[in-house]
Design goal:
- The protein contains 22 helices and 16 strands.
- With 741 residues, it is α+β, with helices and mostly antiparallel strands.
- Among the domains are: 82 residues, no CATH class; 121 residues, no CATH class.
- It has a four-stranded antiparallel β-sheet with strand order 7-6-5-8, sandwiched between helices. It has a three-stranded antiparallel β-sheet with strand order 9-10-11, covered by helices on one side.
- α9 runs antiparallel to α10.
- The radius of gyration is 30 Å and the shape is elongated.
Length: 741
């Protein structure tokens, strides 16, 4: 239904593949290798941007080119400090030229406003900060938990609130969420075109928000998260590794952890390092597994503007693209994607010249006065990349990442003693790699390294070979952020993974590599064995007899533990909670506030047949809907009709649906009027006078009077802890109990 409030713009983009800007040939009389071949520091280089040269191009194409120049100028102003850096604005202006600049920033902001409204509702339902004691807890021995004294109470509360905000964004992006009366489906990864080869808009936030499919690649999903976090001031930050971009934010203890949106998971740094072919030198130098501040994030948008230009006009080596790369490097010399974009441009220029002139010998190219300057510039640039620790991902690794198919036999990529082969003489000599030797995890110095179409000799810092026919190294675009690091993809719309679990024969339904169900905010796993056992304890404690949780509950009650073989027996309809079973390579996701069925069995709905047993039956489900048993009041009625009132429509409706009771259901017109008011107010609280004049309040008042007149038994679930008074609930109480309740 939320699509009603989001303008969907559908347009056919005109592609001008033939409008590639011709590259100038740089004449250089030097035909021998220069004396100095070491790349100077990037931030000391001179940047003389050539003026745009459009030649004889059609007027419409000229306008398209002008759009890119306008976007470049504004991003440049943000980088150079003449305009306040704004990531949300930077994303929009870097993406809009691809669409002919047909969208307005106001439209873009309004769409963000709507999504933000729903996220604020998730936050409101889950934020318990006002009822939590954040003071240091001292035990009976006068000791305390070390984590408890790292921050002052106010700081701990702030960390908690930001963690809840970031979790809410994560849930909204990756899961199906029901926020009464709306039903929001998750955004999903553009598996059909992750690099934007068919349509570059798959790499854009604009497409993610405006398209009906709501699909995007790593950059689109991550940038959307960052925009929402900036709006909520929850301090999430962008991080990158080679060909990958992800989110980091603090948990409630103040520790950073990684958020991977394409797979809805939380990979460790070691996993990201291995699966992005990142060297230790790359981390030390600052080009990989790094975070970005606001100004540096503008540079990422500028690189995306250049890639957008590439896909719009079909050019890989245009002056405009080089201008973008050099401007970013001028302000952030360790931006790996800018470094790789510059490598791509220089590579394309040299190989293009070699093909056109049928030159396949690198020495002949170095001796050619027309291209030698570019060859030596490329050579110095590759030397810089190598020195910073960048290594091009091997082609066979890219195949495994992209296809998910691991070869049955392979040579261990890691040298002794870092090997997966167990030594027979002494256990202390055993070393185990993360991925069993299929990927290189320990890097050693090699004589030659591939970089694009060229072979680089590491001892001499020289390009020694050019291969213009090479097709290797290009499955994964090294500049585009489209890499999901090979994890199995989870489709939250289907409620299933889209590929077979490679570990299915080890644990039928739970990966041995997962920790706390990949949700460190909401789950604890103190012994590394059973993250869900506390949940099972809760079920046993409060008597959820209506839930059929099979052999797991039987085992938990009779033996105090559970066995791996019986995890498959867990087949329950858990109402508003999707048990985050961690299957496969550790990708799990919390299903927010909607109902998800696991397996074939369902619960029996608790239908109230007599008002006498109302409280006994409803006690079974109170905890599930965040209702304190001692807060519930029951007003006995004269008929068999039952109605539920209270603060928080999600709680009220959840309990009402569970027990088959009546709840207030507004008309579409009343709900629309209410939603429009909330959106205009930015999700803030409306005054009592405004609320009382709405259709929603008037319909609610009519309904509760009708329930009272018909003699319904009223179940009052009370107020929500930490929430301000609700005008609706106060009116309902006045109707039932009279004034002064």
């Amino acid at each position: 239904m939320m699509k009603t409030y989001i303008r969907i713009f559908v347009a056919t983009l005109l592609l001008f593949g033939a409008c590639k800007t011709q590259k100038p040939i740089i004449n250089d009389s030097v035909s021998h290798a220069p004396d100095e071949t070491v790349q100077p520091k990037v931030d000391t280089a001179n940047y003389n941007y050539p003026p745009p040269r459009y030649y004889s191009v059609p007027k419409k194409v000229f306008k398209e080119l002008e759009n890119y120049e306008t976007a470049f100028d504004e991003l440049k102003a943000m980088l150079e400090g003449t305009k306040e850096p704004n990531f949300e604005r930077a994303v929009f202006i870097s993406e809009n030229p691809y669409h002919g600049s047909k969208y307005t920033y106001q439209q873009f902001q309004e769409i963000i406003d709507v999504h933000l409204y729903f996220i604020n509702q998730i936050i409101s339902e889950n934020d318990k900060s006002d009822s939590i004691d954040f003071n240091v807890k001292v035990n009976q021995y006068g000791r305390f938990n070390m984590d408890d004294i790292r921050h002052l109470p106010d700081e701990k509360k702030e960390l908690y609130k930001k963690a809840i905000a970031n979790w809410s964004i994560f849930t909204y992006i990756t899961d199906t969420v029901k926020i009464y009366p709306f039903f929001h489906k998750p955004f999903s990864y553009a598996t059909h075109d992750p690099f934007g080869i068919k349509d570059w808009s798959n790499s854009q936030v604009i497409n993610l928000l405006y398209s009906q499919e709501q699909k995007g690649n790593c950059f689109a999903l991550t940038a959307f998260f960052k925009i929402l976090s900036d709006r909520l001031k929850s301090d999430a930050r962008i991080c990158t590794a080679p060909q990958h971009i992800y989110i980091q934010h603090k948990d409630k203890k103040g520790d950073y952890y990684n958020v991977e949106l394409a797979t809805a998971g939380h990979p460790g740094d070691g996993t990201i390092q291995t699966l992005t072919h990142t060297t230790t030198e790359g981390i030390k130098s600052g080009i990989a597994l790094r975070s970005y501040d606001t100004k540096q994030s503008i540079g990422i948008c500028l690189i995306n503007l250049a890639k957008s230009y590439e896909h719009k006009f079909g050019s890989k080596d245009d002056d405009f693209m080089l201008k973008c790369a050099e401007l970013v490097l001028k302000n952030d010399r360790l931006n790996l994607n800018a470094l790789l974009l510059k490598q791509q441009i220089l590579d394309a220029r040299v190989t293009g010249y070699a093909i056109e002139n049928n030159i396949n010998d690198i020495n002949n190219l170095k001796a050619n006065s027309e291209i030698s300057h570019t060859v030596y510039e490329l050579e110095r640039h590759i030397a810089l990349l190598y020195r910073l620790g960048y290594r091009q991902m091997p082609y066979d690794m890219q195949e495994i990442i992209m296809t998910g198919i691991i070869p049955e036999t392979f040579v261990d990529k890691n040298p002794t003693p870092f090997t997966t082969i167990d030594p027979v003489d002494e256990h202390r000599k055993k070393f185990t790699t993360l991925y069993g030797g299929v990927f290189q995890e320990v890097f050693v110095t090699r004589e030659f390294e591939p970089f694009g179409h060229f072979t680089f000799q590491t001892a001499t810092n020289k390009i020694t070979v050019i291969d213009t026919t090479a097709q290797t190294g290009f499955l994964i675009d090294p500049v585009a952020f489209a890499y999901d690091f090979g994890a199995r993809m989870y489709d939250a719309r289907l409620g299933m993974f889209t590929s077979v679990d490679p570990k299915f024969n080890v644990f039928p339904s739970r990966s041995p590599y997962s920790a706390f169900m990949n949700n460190p905010i909401f789950w604890d796993d103190p012994d590394g064995q059973c993250p869900i056992c506390p949940w099972l304890d809760a079920i046993v404690d409060i008597g959820f007899v209506a839930y059929d949780v099979g052999l797991l509950i039987h085992e938990k009650v009779t033996t105090g533990s559970t066995s791996g073989a019986n995890w498959a027996a867990l087949t329950a309809d858990v109402g508003s909670i999707f048990i985050p079973m961690s299957v496969g390579a550790g990708m799990a996701v919390r299903a927010g506030l909607t109902t998800t069925k696991i397996g074939a069995k369902t619960t029996t709905k608790l239908v109230i047949k007599s008002a006498d047993n109302v409280k006994d039956i409803t006690t079974q489900v109170l905890k599930k809907h965040d209702i304190a048993a001692d807060a519930v009041k029951v007003v006995q009625g004269k008929s068999d009709k039952v109605a539920v009132i209270g603060q928080g429509m999600t709680r009220v409706k959840g309990l009402g649906d569970e027990i088959g009771a009546n709840v207030f259901n507004p008309s579409k017109a009343a709900q629309k009027e209410w939603d429009d008011l909330l959106i205009k107010s930015g999700g803030g609280k409306l005054s009592d006078d405004v609320v009382k004049n709405t259709k929603l309040h008037k319909e609610n008042q009519t309904w509760i009077k009708q329930m009272k007149d018909e003699g319904a038994t009223i179940i009052d679930i009370g107020s929500q802890q930490g929430k301000s008074k609700s005008t609706f609930y106060e009116m309902e109480k006045t109707t039932i109990y009279g004034s002064g309740n």
